[in-house]
Amino acid sequence: MYNSAILVENGKVIGRYRKMFPTISELEAGISPGTEPSVIKTRFGFIGVAICFDINFDELFEYYRDRVKLILFPSAFPGGLLLSCRAIQTKSYIVSAVLDEFGVFVDPLGRILYRSSRYSPVITLELNLDYEVLHIDYNYLKLKKVKEKYGSGVNIIVSRPEAVLILESRLRDKSAKDIMEEFGLEDRDRYLERSKNFRREILDG
Asked: Whole-angstrom Cα distance, residue 49 to residue 141?
């Protein structure tokens, strides 16, 4: 027996995920742990799923990073700041549905975009999954040229406290990744890895 999430699209089951990290009380009650993450292909892209207590474990979210742009989080508890931390870690949107609590939409910068309430228990929000997450360093001046060329065809969302940003494409014929390649932009993780490598070179002399 598993604690599972089933994803349905147009009346058809397109994917399932078995909770990898049940609580001790679930295990004692006979719930078996799942053994692998689920990357589910949908008509709007690849998504991942995490269930409740899963939110505490890095292994699952490290797997999802760079594989999905959206993570669904059905849960018995809200998750709190952990949702923002995991969204930042995976560079993904996280959408929660919570038992007897309020669900949220969290963006890849960790910001809560929308929250359900007692008066609006069911909420919807249109998300653009054609985006990339960048660090400000070495990219910011280039982004001005991106805006000059593509105008409203791109959307740039900056979070200055963390010095990161989202580059969204609204263009039909050019993805955010295409724009990055065109202007020589570097994503956040690649920049951080380059920084670590440069540090290592300095230490090694």
From this structure: 36
Burial of 50 (0-12, 13-18, 19+ CB in 10 A): buried
Judgement on whether residues 110 and 137 belong to the same structural domain of the protein: no
Q: Which domain holds residue 191?
A: 131-204
3-state secondary structure of 56: helix
**pTM score, whole prediction:** 0.93
Give the integer Cα–Cα distance in Å for 77 and 96: 10
Same domain? 166 vs 103: no
Are 42 and 105 found together in one domain? yes
In three-state secondary structure terms, 129 is coil
pLDDT of residue 99: 87
For residue 172, being part of any structural domain is answered with yes
> How many residues belong to the chain?
205
SS3 content of the chain, % helix, strand, coil (to 5): 30, 30, 40
Q: Are residues 102 and 174 in the same domain?
A: no
Q: Is the pLDDT of residue 118 over 90?
A: no
Spatial CA neighbour of 150 closest among 136, 132, 168, 131:
168
Q: How confident is the model at residue 103 (pLDDT cuts 50, 70, 90)?
A: very high
The residue out of 90, 115, 140 marking a domain boundary is 115
Q: Which residues, including other chains, have CB under 8 Å from residue 12's CB and lie 6 or more apart? A: none
| H-helix segments, 43-103 | 58-64, 81-90
